[in-house]
Specification:
Order of helices and strands: HHHHHEHEEEHEHEEE
CATH superfamily of the largest domain: 2,3-Dihydroxybiphenyl 1,2-Dioxygenase, domain 1
Strand content: 15-25%
Radius of gyration: 22 Å
Helix content: 25-40%
Oligomer: single chain
CATH topology of the largest domain: 2,3-Dihydroxybiphenyl 1,2-Dioxygenase, domain 1
CATH class of the largest domain: Alpha Beta
Strand order of the largest sheet: 1-4-3-2
Largest sheet: 4 strands, mixed
Distance between the termini: 50 Å
Protein backbone atom coordinates (compact mmCIF):
# COMPACT_ATOMS: atom_id res chain seq x y z
CA UNK A 1 0.00 0.00 0.00
CA UNK A 2 1.35 3.50 -0.77
CA UNK A 3 2.46 5.56 2.22
CA UNK A 4 0.99 8.94 3.16
CA UNK A 5 4.07 10.57 1.63
CA UNK A 6 3.01 9.27 -1.79
CA UNK A 7 -0.34 11.05 -1.46
CA UNK A 8 1.30 14.23 -0.16
CA UNK A 9 3.42 14.31 -3.31
CA UNK A 10 0.30 13.79 -5.44
CA UNK A 11 -1.42 16.73 -3.75
CA UNK A 12 1.61 18.97 -4.36
CA UNK A 13 1.70 17.83 -7.98
CA UNK A 14 -1.94 18.86 -8.32
CA UNK A 15 -1.03 22.30 -6.95
CA UNK A 16 1.72 22.61 -9.57
CA UNK A 17 -0.62 21.60 -12.40
CA UNK A 18 -3.11 24.20 -11.21
CA UNK A 19 -0.42 26.93 -11.23
CA UNK A 20 0.60 25.85 -14.75
CA UNK A 21 -3.03 26.17 -15.94
CA UNK A 22 -3.23 22.51 -16.96
CA UNK A 23 -6.78 21.86 -18.19
CA UNK A 24 -6.72 18.32 -16.77
CA UNK A 25 -7.12 19.82 -13.30
CA UNK A 26 -10.83 20.35 -13.97
CA UNK A 27 -11.41 16.61 -14.01
CA UNK A 28 -9.72 16.32 -10.61
CA UNK A 29 -11.98 19.01 -9.12
CA UNK A 30 -15.06 17.23 -10.44
CA UNK A 31 -14.19 14.15 -8.37
CA UNK A 32 -15.69 16.09 -5.46
CA UNK A 33 -19.48 16.10 -5.50
CA UNK A 34 -19.74 19.83 -4.79
CA UNK A 35 -17.65 20.62 -7.89
CA UNK A 36 -19.26 18.25 -10.40
CA UNK A 37 -20.70 21.07 -12.50
CA UNK A 38 -17.46 23.08 -12.50
CA UNK A 39 -15.98 23.80 -15.92
CA UNK A 40 -12.26 23.46 -16.63
CA UNK A 41 -11.87 27.24 -16.84
CA UNK A 42 -13.72 27.77 -13.54
CA UNK A 43 -11.47 25.20 -11.87
CA UNK A 44 -8.35 27.02 -13.03
CA UNK A 45 -9.74 30.34 -11.82
CA UNK A 46 -10.48 28.97 -8.35
CA UNK A 47 -7.99 29.23 -5.52
CA UNK A 48 -6.55 25.79 -4.86
CA UNK A 49 -5.27 25.35 -1.31
CA UNK A 50 -3.12 22.47 -0.10
CA UNK A 51 -6.04 21.24 2.02
CA UNK A 52 -8.32 21.08 -1.03
CA UNK A 53 -5.61 19.36 -3.09
CA UNK A 54 -5.22 16.78 -0.34
CA UNK A 55 -8.98 16.21 -0.21
CA UNK A 56 -9.05 15.65 -3.97
CA UNK A 57 -6.13 13.21 -3.72
CA UNK A 58 -7.90 11.30 -0.95
CA UNK A 59 -11.16 11.00 -2.91
CA UNK A 60 -9.27 9.93 -6.03
CA UNK A 61 -7.68 7.16 -3.95
CA UNK A 62 -11.12 5.99 -2.80
CA UNK A 63 -11.38 7.66 0.62
CA UNK A 64 -13.91 10.14 1.95
CA UNK A 65 -11.41 12.62 3.34
CA UNK A 66 -7.73 13.31 3.90
CA UNK A 67 -8.11 12.30 7.56
CA UNK A 68 -9.59 8.95 6.53
CA UNK A 69 -6.71 8.43 4.11
CA UNK A 70 -4.17 9.20 6.84
CA UNK A 71 -5.76 6.65 9.16
CA UNK A 72 -5.80 4.01 6.42
CA UNK A 73 -2.13 4.52 5.56
CA UNK A 74 -0.88 4.74 9.15
CA UNK A 75 1.97 2.28 9.57
CA UNK A 76 2.24 1.51 5.88
CA UNK A 77 5.81 0.68 4.94
CA UNK A 78 7.49 2.03 1.86
CA UNK A 79 7.90 -0.81 -0.62
CA UNK A 80 10.96 -0.78 -2.88
CA UNK A 81 10.32 -0.29 -6.55
CA UNK A 82 11.06 -3.29 -8.78
CA UNK A 83 14.15 -2.99 -10.93
CA UNK A 84 13.22 -1.58 -14.35
CA UNK A 85 13.73 -3.78 -17.38
CA UNK A 86 15.51 -2.72 -20.57
CA UNK A 87 13.99 0.13 -22.61
CA UNK A 88 11.31 -1.21 -24.92
CA UNK A 89 9.19 0.66 -27.49
CA UNK A 90 5.69 -0.78 -27.17
CA UNK A 91 3.44 1.06 -29.63
CA UNK A 92 2.85 4.38 -31.32
CA UNK A 93 -0.26 6.54 -30.87
CA UNK A 94 -1.21 9.00 -33.61
CA UNK A 95 -2.55 12.31 -32.29
CA UNK A 96 -5.02 13.99 -34.62
CA UNK A 97 -5.40 17.76 -34.25
CA UNK A 98 -9.04 18.80 -34.40
CA UNK A 99 -11.26 21.82 -33.74
CA UNK A 100 -13.98 19.80 -32.00
CA UNK A 101 -12.93 16.74 -30.00
CA UNK A 102 -16.52 15.80 -29.15
CA UNK A 103 -17.64 15.82 -32.78
CA UNK A 104 -14.60 13.90 -34.05
CA UNK A 105 -14.79 11.18 -31.39
CA UNK A 106 -18.46 10.85 -32.31
CA UNK A 107 -17.44 10.37 -35.95
CA UNK A 108 -15.00 7.61 -35.02
CA UNK A 109 -17.65 5.93 -32.89
CA UNK A 110 -20.67 6.22 -35.19
CA UNK A 111 -19.02 5.93 -38.61
CA UNK A 112 -15.88 3.86 -37.97
CA UNK A 113 -17.06 1.60 -35.15
CA UNK A 114 -14.52 2.77 -32.55
CA UNK A 115 -15.11 2.84 -28.80
CA UNK A 116 -14.65 6.16 -27.00
CA UNK A 117 -12.08 5.41 -24.28
CA UNK A 118 -12.06 8.78 -22.56
CA UNK A 119 -12.71 12.48 -23.00
CA UNK A 120 -10.86 15.04 -20.87
CA UNK A 121 -12.56 18.30 -20.03
CA UNK A 122 -16.15 19.41 -19.48
CA UNK A 123 -15.86 20.71 -23.04
CA UNK A 124 -13.46 18.00 -24.22
CA UNK A 125 -9.97 19.15 -25.21
CA UNK A 126 -8.41 15.68 -25.46
CA UNK A 127 -9.78 12.22 -26.11
CA UNK A 128 -9.01 8.67 -27.11
CA UNK A 129 -10.86 6.16 -29.27
CA UNK A 130 -9.97 2.56 -29.99
CA UNK A 131 -10.90 -0.39 -32.13
CA UNK A 132 -9.02 -3.66 -31.82
CA UNK A 133 -5.33 -2.68 -31.70
CA UNK A 134 -5.72 0.85 -33.06
CA UNK A 135 -5.95 3.73 -30.59
CA UNK A 136 -5.70 7.26 -32.02
CA UNK A 137 -5.90 10.26 -29.73
CA UNK A 138 -7.56 13.57 -30.60
CA UNK A 139 -6.36 16.94 -29.35
CA UNK A 140 -8.12 20.28 -29.56
CA UNK A 141 -6.43 23.09 -31.49
CA UNK A 142 -7.96 26.33 -32.71
CA UNK A 143 -6.64 25.79 -36.24
CA UNK A 144 -5.65 22.27 -37.42
CA UNK A 145 -3.10 23.52 -39.95
CA UNK A 146 -1.62 20.13 -40.76
CA UNK A 147 -4.95 18.81 -42.03
CA UNK A 148 -5.25 21.87 -44.28
CA UNK A 149 -1.78 21.33 -45.71
CA UNK A 150 -2.47 17.61 -46.15
CA UNK A 151 -5.61 18.48 -48.10
CA UNK A 152 -3.53 20.41 -50.65
CA UNK A 153 -0.88 17.72 -51.04
CA UNK A 154 -1.47 14.49 -52.92
CA UNK A 155 -1.37 11.35 -50.74
CA UNK A 156 -0.32 13.22 -47.58
CA UNK A 157 -1.90 11.30 -44.71
CA UNK A 158 -2.42 12.22 -41.06
CA UNK A 159 -2.49 8.57 -39.93
CA UNK A 160 -2.33 5.07 -41.38
CA UNK A 161 -3.77 1.94 -39.75
CA UNK A 162 -2.77 -1.52 -40.92
CA UNK A 163 -5.78 -3.84 -40.88
CA UNK A 164 -6.70 -7.42 -41.62
CA UNK A 165 -9.26 -7.91 -44.42
CA UNK A 166 -9.32 -4.37 -45.78
CA UNK A 167 -12.02 -5.40 -48.28
CA UNK A 168 -14.34 -6.41 -45.43
CA UNK A 169 -13.68 -3.17 -43.55
CA UNK A 170 -14.33 -1.14 -46.69
CA UNK A 171 -17.69 -2.87 -47.14
CA UNK A 172 -18.56 -2.30 -43.47
CA UNK A 173 -17.86 1.43 -43.73
CA UNK A 174 -19.73 1.62 -47.02
CA UNK A 175 -22.78 0.08 -45.34
CA UNK A 176 -22.52 2.77 -42.63
CA UNK A 177 -22.91 5.42 -45.34
CA UNK A 178 -19.36 6.71 -45.05
CA UNK A 179 -17.96 8.90 -47.83
CA UNK A 180 -14.47 7.91 -48.99
CA UNK A 181 -11.62 10.23 -49.95
CA UNK A 182 -10.15 7.29 -51.86
CA UNK A 183 -11.97 4.07 -52.67
CA UNK A 184 -10.30 0.70 -52.24
CA UNK A 185 -7.14 0.80 -54.36
CA UNK A 186 -4.22 -1.55 -54.99
CA UNK A 187 -1.03 0.51 -54.68
CA UNK A 188 1.98 0.03 -56.97
CA UNK A 189 4.32 0.12 -53.99
CA UNK A 190 2.49 -2.71 -52.28
CA UNK A 191 -0.64 -2.92 -50.22
CA UNK A 192 -4.31 -2.20 -50.78
CA UNK A 193 -5.93 0.72 -48.99
CA UNK A 194 -8.76 3.19 -48.83
CA UNK A 195 -8.90 6.65 -47.27
CA UNK A 196 -11.45 8.29 -44.98
CA UNK A 197 -11.60 11.82 -43.59
CA UNK A 198 -12.68 13.01 -40.16
CA UNK A 199 -14.86 16.15 -39.73
CA UNK A 200 -11.75 18.35 -39.41
CA UNK A 201 -10.13 17.12 -42.62
CA UNK A 202 -7.63 14.59 -41.22
CA UNK A 203 -7.16 11.94 -43.93
CA UNK A 204 -6.66 8.41 -42.61
CA UNK A 205 -5.54 5.36 -44.56
CA UNK A 206 -6.76 1.84 -43.79
CA UNK A 207 -4.37 -0.60 -45.46
CA UNK A 208 -3.60 -4.29 -45.85
CA UNK A 209 -0.15 -5.36 -47.03
CA UNK A 210 0.18 -8.65 -48.93
Amino acid sequence: MPTIETYRKQAKLLLRWHREKNNSVGGKFRLLERFQSLTDREALEMKLTLALAQEISAVEAGYGSWAELKRATAGALKTPRPAPGPPLLKNVIPILLVRDVQRCTGFFHEKLGFTIDFLHGLRPFYGSVSRDGARPHLRYVQQPLFAEIAGREESLLCASFEVANVQGLFEEFKARGLEFVQALTRQAGGGTDFHVQDPDGNVISLVTYR
